[in-house]
From TrEMBL:
UniProt xrefs under Pfam families: HMA
CDD domains registered for this protein in UniProt: HMA
Native organism: Trapa natans (Water chestnut)
Main subcellular localisation: membrane
Keywords assigned: Cadmium, Lipoprotein, Membrane, Metal-binding, Methylation, Prenylation
UniProt KW Transmembrane helix keyword: no
Identification of the protein by name: HMA domain-containing protein
Record flagged with keyword Lipoprotein: yes
Family: Belongs to the HIPP family.
GO molecular function: metal ion binding
Amino acid sequence: MWALDYLSNFCTVASTRSKRKPMQTVEIKVKMDCDGCERRVRNAVSTMKGVKTVEINRKQSQVTVNGHVDPNKVLKRVKKLGKRAEFWPYIPQHLVYFPHASQAYDKRAPAGNVKNVTQGFPSSDPPEHERLVTMFSDDNVNACSVM
């Protein structure tokens, strides 16, 4: 049986149909003031091919689209409505090393979120004061040579 499957792979004609896009979640920040704005955005996005679900949180100005879609096409469709839209720029605060850095902190961000910016990672070297404390500790066998 497996031999037939193996041989059939060589005999099949290549399909001209394009591969299906992978299932993904697209989060977009869109300024929506009223129910009409929300309805227009929902209708525009939900009629796109491949969209499974559309969730709108008007308080956070967030639109979440799940489905087999291209993120850039979703963003373009929302911008075509005349709305100012961008990909969701925020991530949860606990994922960032320095959430109160000037680039990451945004007072307009929803509670518990900060801007998604690249930050330097904390140094793996111990701080200077820890190195000095261990230099003069009783546990350090070379401490008396320093004194």
